[in-house]
Amino acid sequence: MNELKEMDELFDRLFPIMRSITGEGVRETIRILQEYIPLEMEGIPTGTEVFDWEIPKEWVIREAWIKDEHGETIIDIKDLNLHVVNYSESIDMWLSLEELKQHVHTIPHLPEAVPYVISYYKERWGFCMSQNQLDALPDGQYHVYIDSEKINGELNFGQAILPGKSKKEVLISTYICHPSMANNELSGPIVAAFLYNRLKQWENRELTYRFVFLPETIGSIAYLSKYGQYLKGNMYSGAVLTCLGGKEKKLSYKASRNNESPLNHLLQYLNSKENPNLLIRPFSPLNGSDERQFCSPGFNLPVGQFAKMTYGTYPGYHNSLDTKESMSIEALLDSVNEIENILKLQELNGYYVNTKPYGEPKLGKYYLYPDINAPALRGRSNNTKLDNRQQLNQILMILNYSDGKHRLSEIVKMLNYPLEDYSVSIEVLKKHKLLEGPFYEEQELF
Questions:
Q1: Residue 146 and residue 93: Cα distance in Å, rounded?
Q2: Beta-bridge partner residues of 159
Q3: H/E element holding 121?
Q4: CA-CA 20 to 30 A from 380: which of 234, 295, 351, 395?
Q5: Half-sphere exposure of residue 389, counting CA atoms within 13 Å on the CB side?
Q6: CB of 123 within 8 A of CB of 85?
Q7: Using N-to-C axis directions, what is the helix angle for 187-200 and 3-14, rounded to 10°?
Q8: Around Cβ 198, how many Cβ atoms within 10 Å?
């Protein structure tokens, strides 16, 4: 089965699940994802203090509907998860239309859409429907019924680690708490799962990769309460994956608060030199996803965010218009391809060390320098993989600036060749033991 078909099938399995920040929906989502990626599920009990927050009780929802006085069903969560306010209290009573309207949420400027409404931390009950449906309700009495409860349980998340040669870690985080939304919910977990399997196939993985699937905000805060200090000591870079399903939308990167993030440096270089169409958004705590928690000042982790059809910029954001048809599975596969390529470049974009730094090495004895100097032969080099003097130029530049203090992206600015082209020259130099690296911290040498 090809990736596109597998993604499509995974989407269809995950979309109907009633998810929230806690509960069986989160666990069911993780169990399905475990078929694609070896996630270890963990839980933090209800009532546990996590910094300024507390793990809430689990929300259990069994039924939620509105019926008219003739017993006809108006809305039912069996038809759409969004019809109930997420984390609603139980209710069983009759109301007039005017009383009912006080507990019904709509989006007047999108009259066909059913909004996604949450009330995690304040007790209330409510329903959601389209403005058109609400406007069509006749006067009369309505039976409102929500069968729910809040129980002591736990908040769950899943993680999987792909080890590399370096203990320095790259965090890939995404959230699994929104019910029945496509771009704003499922695009992140699906891209993350398939990205994991791409990286798993890399033969020479330099960095270690930590994939985390958790409920948004409270999940990342809980995760940081347990792993934050470890991440502060071991993280190299990271990114939150969200809203990656936009049709014909370009990949964008929200920079981390930490300006020294290797991903910040790499994406800024690519944007300025090789891919000016790559949109870089500045860090802001005013909106976004879990990068706000990872970048909170106590941690200031180098975590950015990848997105395409970003939150708040499309009609289906946080409502029932966010369907598979409003995005595309092909866009998810494109996102996997693009992010994988960026992560490959990040591995290449380390610090290197010239093992023979006193004068230029005698490249001729390694067959890396022309063995004759004649006017008719100038501009050629003894290689077959890169044209003319490109490899020799790269070799000379790499050796001179591989002092453990220059990232590769700083070196390549001096020559007009794409960053990925340098992988050939680097491998040649490493083969002849003229170069060591990549390292992911500056090296003190001279």
A1: 10
A2: 40, 212
A3: none
A4: 351
A5: 10
A6: no
A7: 140
A8: 16
Residue found under tokens 């990068």: 291
Tokens of 1: 């089965």
- The continuous run of DSSP H or E covering 404 comes out as strand 403-407
In order along its 446 residues, the chain shows pLDDT tens digits of: 599 999 999 999 999 999 999 999 999 999 999 999 999 999 999 999 999 999 999 999 999 999 999 999 999 999 999 999 999 999 999 999 999 999 999 999 999 999 999 999 999 999 999 999 999 999 999 999 999 999 999 999 999 999 999 999 999 999 999 999 999 999 999 999 999 999 999 999 999 999 999 999 999 999 999 999 999 999 999 999 999 998 888 999 999 999 999 999 999 999 987 777 788 999 999 999 999 999 999 999 999 999 999 988 899 999 999 999 999 999 999 999 999 999 999 999 999 999 999 999 999 898 887 654 434 444 444 444 445 578 889 999 999 999 999 999 999 988 888 999 999 999 999 999 999 999 999 998 76
Q: Where are the alpha helices (DSSP H) in 161-251?
A: 187-200, 218-234
Query: If DSSP codes are grouped into helix, strand and coil, which group holds residue 34?
Result: coil
User: Residue 279: CB partners within 8 Å, gap ≥ 6?
Assistant: 250, 251, 252, 253
Which letter does DSSP use for residue 376 in this model? Answer: G
- Distances in whole angstroms, Cα of residue 52 to Cα of each of 48, 120, 222: 11, 16, 10
Partnered with residue 156 across adjacent β-strands are 43
Distance CA(377)–CA(339), nearest Å, equals: 41
Question: 């406007």: which residue's tokens?
Answer: 135
Q: Which domains does the chain have, with CATH numbers?
A: 3-56+154-348 (3.40.630.10), 58-151 (3.50.30.90), 351-439 (1.10.10.10)
The distance of Cα 27 from the centroid of its chain, to the nearest Å, equals: 19
Token pair for residue 330? 């092909």
Q: Token pair for residue 411?
A: 């070196």
Could you identify the residue written with the tokens 């409102």? Answer: 144
Residue pair 180/115 in contact by the 8 Å Cβ criterion: no
Q: Cα-atom radius of gyration of the chain, to the nearest Å?
A: 27
**Would you call 68 helix, strand, or coil by DSSP?**
strand
